[in-house]
Write a structure and sequence with these properties.
Layout (H helix, E strand, L loop, with lengths): L2 H60 L3 E3 L2 E2 L11 H4 L10 E4 H9 L24 H11 L2 H7 L10 E8 L12 E8 L1 E5 L6 E2 L12 H13 L10 H9 L3 E6 L5 E8 L10 E10 L1 H13 L3 E6 L9 E2 L2 E2 L3 E10 L2 E7 L16 H5 L1 H7 L8 E5 H7 E7 L21 H15 L14 H4 L4 H21 L5 E4 L11 E6 L8 E6 L4 E5 L3 E7 L6 E3 L2
Antiparallel strand pairs: 1-2, 3-6, 4-5, 6-7, 8-9, 8-17, 9-10, 11-14, 11-17, 12-13, 14-15, 15-16, 18-19, 18-22, 19-20, 20-21, 22-23
Helix pairs in contact: 1-12, 1-14, 4-7
Length: 557
């Protein structure tokens, strides 16, 4: 590159910076307008849409969904019919199942006419695994349920539909564009509310995901059915990976930390198999060439927990049964990783069994002597000793019993957790009350768990800042990120920083593949010694940039 070309490139960069500063200025002026527009869209518009839908549903219920005894007008999904092939497409013959509407099933068991999509808010306790080996899926959904807005984001249909038609939004990680570096795109999946049951005497019983008989919430049943349709049949959900479920339900970047022989842990990215892109067992992993000791693993997981990332964990190979367990930890089973805690020198992990029962029985288990011996830990964590599948386990025992941790890097912007919580139990006034409550929280910033990826401050602290300052800070950080990516060109000398492994910090290398657009894109570096690794752009500091055709380098100021 000659001096004239270098000068033109510099002028281009200056012009880009001036344009972006103008863009930031205009955005600052428009922040109040966009803020209230988003509030209108999220709450008021959704509220009006629900009332319109309810009016049509009321007319439909007046005729009980039928023109006569022989004609049922309720929606039936032609692409996922109520047949044996939808339960087990590989061995459908000789099996017969009773399919019942979720509404009818709840009313039959409880003798009332009230079934709800959501009732009393989203809670991990709404989930309970049934007779299908999809603990990996239940664990992932339970992890998302820690943040109710993430479950609400999945549902396009926001409340019980008398027609029995529900639309959910899933992310197809196989629809990416290798050239454009797109990871995939969102796809709407429509299902009816017919659920396979067993009717061998007495009341019909759900075969798979269980329903809370008291509340009658059907959202867990519909997520399981949507993914069964996605994969091909219910039996196709019998075995899978929590990372696949997290990526499919959120669309966010998901990585796995896998235990290797010798006790170290390696970080990998989930990748779909092109031959069976929507099958939960057809998953490959791309290594990031990052390994961690157990201490480094704990520090990394603690950092992820502080950033409100979604996490699950899986045990060693086994039969996924109570008989195949060690100290209360089921082998071949997936759990939700709720929290990572350190109190003094004590390091504890909080997990949840998707069965809703059967917990760890060793040190730090419910009512274990260790709580009495360490009162400061008891006071800091305030454990609940209900038989609910939630338990604490020491980190040393955790790494012995678990072989994989899946991490979903949840999007942490202003609108991630905002939703209209329609309380169907309140009847006609429910949407109005929820709209007013949501607008109030929206204006004050309450209800937004915010922390930008560039900020080291946790969301609960960051949300105390006024919303307009958060918006401006986001733009400024984005501008800084753009300028930093501009320096990450092929041939630039860089130094690693902010790495999870301390021994990797300070290592020097040369960029051999520049990053593409996106804050979290990877840059490929050749370290001194010949080793090639991929790291995040924010983990790279530029020392010098090659500007001359003969390899002339310019030191970064």
């Amino acid at each position: 590159m000659d001096k004239q070309a270098t000068k033109q490139q510099t002028i281009k960069h200056i012009a880009h910076d001036v344009f972006y500063f103008c863009f930031i200025f205009v955005r600052c002026l428009l922040v109040p307008v966009m803020f209230f527009y988003q509030g209108f869209h999220l709450y008021l518009f959704s509220c009006l849409h629900i009332y319109a839908t309810r009016a049509m549903g009321w007319c439909f219920k007046r005729i009980d969904g039928r023109l006569c005894k022989c004609i049922d007008l309720r929606f039936t999904d032609p692409d996922f019919p109520a047949t044996s092939s939808s339960v087990d497409r590989e061995h459908p013959r000789g099996h017969f199942f009773a399919w019942m509407r979720a509404w009818d099933l709840h009313c039959t068991v409880n003798g009332n006419d009230a079934a709800f999509l959501f009732s009393g808010g989203v809670n991990a306790r709404d989930l309970c695994q049934g007779g299908l080996g999809d603990c990996w899926l239940i664990a992932a959904i339970a992890a998302l349920a820690e943040y109710p807005g993430l479950i609400q984001r999945i549902f396009i249909t926001k409340e019980t539909n008398p027609l029995g038609k529900y639309t959910l939004r899933l992310f197809d990680i196989s629809l990416g564009d290798d050239d454009a570096k797109k990871r995939g795109k969102y796809v709407n999946v429509t299902v009816d509310d017919r659920i396979p049951t067993k009717c061998d005497g007495g009341y019909p019983r759900l075969m798979y995901m269980k329903m809370d008989e008291k509340e009658g919430e059907i959202w867990p049943l519909l997520i399981e059915k949507a993914l069964a349709k996605w994969a091909g049949s219910y039996k196709d959900l019998d075995g899978g990976y929590p990372s696949w479920a997290l990526a499919t339900l959120t669309g966010w970047e998901t990585e796995s930390l896998i235990k290797r022989q010798g006790g170290s842990w390696e970080k990998k990215l989930i990748m779909p198999m092109k031959s069976r892109p929507r099958h939960p067992q057809s998953t490959t992993y791309e290594g990031l060439h990052e390994s961690f000791s157990e201490d480094e693993l704990f520090n990394l997981l603690k950092k992820y927990d502080e950033q409100d990332y979604i996490m699950c964990c899986a045990t060693h190979s086994g039969n996924d049964t109570v008989a195949d367990s060690s100290g209360g930890i089921v082998q071949g089973h997936a759990y939700t990783l709720i929290g990572v805690h350190q109190v003094g020198s004590h390091r504890l992990m909080q997990c949840r069994n998707p069965w809703g029962k059967f917990e760890w029985k060793g040190k730090w288990s419910d009512k274990h002597q260790s709580w009495l011996e360490n009162r400061e830990v008891f006071q800091a964590l305030n454990p609940s000793w209900d038989d609910d599948g939630i338990f604490f386990i020491g980190f040393e025992d955790f790494v012995k019993n678990y072989r994989m941790v899946d991490v979903c890097k949840r999007d942490q912007n202003v609108y991630t957790d905002l939703y209209l919580d329609v309380d169907e139990k309140d009847g006609v006034t429910g949407p109005t009350k929820s709209c007013m409550k949501g607008c109030g929280k929206y204006v004050t910033g309450e209800g937004c768990r915010l922390s930008h990826p560039f900020s080291a401050v946790r969301g609960e602290i960051d949300m105390r800042r006024p919303w307009y300052l958060r918006s401006i800070n986001y733009l400024l950080n984005d501008f800084t990120s753009i300028r930093h990516r501009r320096t990450l060109v092929v041939g630039a000398r860089v130094v690693l920083e902010n790495m999870a492994r301390d021994d990797m910090n300070g290592k020097v290398g040369t960029i051999v593949e520049a990053p593409h657009e996106g804050e979290d894109d990877l840059v490929k570096i050749k370290l001194e010694g010949g080793r090639n690794i991929k790291v995040k752009t924010r983990q790279v500091g530029v020392r010098s940039i090659v500007v001359g055709g003969g390899g002339e380098a310019m030191e970064r100021v």
